[in-house]
Amino acid sequence: PARSPSPSPQGFLYTAPIREQGNIYKPNNKMMADELSEKPVHDVHTKEIDLVNRDPKHLNDDVVKIDFEDVIAEPEGTHSFDGIWKASFTTFTVTKYWFYRLLSAIFGTPMALIWGIYFAILSFLHIWAVVPCIRSYLIEIQCISRVYSICIHTFCDPLFEAIGKMFSSIRATVRKEI
């Protein structure tokens, strides 16, 4: 009589056959497990950004650190009223601060999109066009340099050797007559 298969401990009727080395999903031996072990991948797109230090590489240190004193200054002997000077300082500083924020809010994301596209195109061209062209040029120029070297050694070396032998027999003496 035909026997019905007995269920496995997990409740399956049939289990996957296990080879000596294990199957590729659950390796039995340590060497195979080490080969298949996944390494953590660091994704640069999900890194945290620093909201405090927004210029960690100091790209804009010499350009945009402009304060009131860098733009407007009254020399000795030509001073406005103290209240006007304070109001001018406050107006300049607050206007610069909020107008920058307004421009950033309006144009920041579109400019980031434009610059992202630009640098993506630049990277693409560098990887897929510039470097292969340069490598191709270097390979081709290497062939040309061999031909050039052969021509030099074939035609110029004997000529210069002959000229050298001709002039090697010339002796010059210096006499001092009194």
Description:
The chain is mostly helical and 178 residues long. Helices cover 55% and strands 0% of the residues. The protein is built from 3 helices and no strands. The longest helix is centred in the last third of the chain and has 87 residues. The radius of gyration is 39 Å and the shape is elongated. The chain starts with 29 loop residues before the first helix and ends in a 10-residue tail after the last helix.
Summarize the structure.
The protein has 178 residues and is mainly alpha-helical. 55% of the residues lie in helices and 0% in strands.
Main beta sheet = none
Distance between the termini: 138 Å
- What is the averaged pLDDT score? 82
Strand content: under 5%
Helix content: 55-70%
Point out poorly predicted stretches.
none
Total strands: 0
What is the string of helix and strand elements? HHH
Structure annotation, total helices: 3
List its salient traits:
mainly alpha; 178 residues; 55% helix
Please describe the topology of this protein.
Elements: H1 30-36, H2 68-71, H3 82-168
